[in-house]
Amino acid sequence: MSVIIPAYNEERRLPKTLEKIHEYLAKKDFDYEIIVVDDGSKDSTVRIAEGFKAVEPKLRVVKNPQNMGKGYAVRNGMLNGRGKYLLFTDSDLSTPIEEFDRFLPRLLNGYDVIIGSRALKDSNIKVRQPMHRVIMGRGFNLLVRTLFWTDIKDTQCGFKCFSREAAQAVFPKQEVWGFGFDVEVLFIARKLGFKVLEFPVEWSDSPDTKVSALKDSVRMFLELLKIRWRLRRI
Question: Quick one: average pLDDT of 189-215?
């Protein structure tokens, strides 16, 4: 298993996240690796990640050439991962790493891609987002469902797992580097015939989110239009 953590200026949150992931994986009987993908951080993110190798020798640091965007960081990590299953998770662990315990049986049962969801009946929202972000998220998801005729209720939760076969087929085709990349990789996976499952997870809002309500909303809308056009050619 590979756990991919995209990181940009995460010196404050990364130590605790690495400790939690290490503690979780060290108890498992399967092989694993942790990959921190540095997206051109200007703080001590790389130094902290490299230093954690003394605790967790199965950790690797992959560096983007510069600040490229979360989508590029995730793609870089997924294409560098060596595991049978490749999970990417946000550096704040808004979804606890333990939720993978509920993903694994479904992966073993034939699903190629499992995406964590905050919008299903059994989703467990511990700390809610501010209302303006809730409204923004609902509007974005409505737009996704309208443009792509999909029943997926939450494309943006940062906790998603791909089988190795799916990751190697999907991520080389990814072209969106911003926050809209989640939509792109999910619909590439479906277009290629992989079996995708939306699954309820525990989730807590982080007050330190890097998503800008105004700037990133406009960018994500433009990314959706690009994705919609591209899917005709895949």
Answer: 84
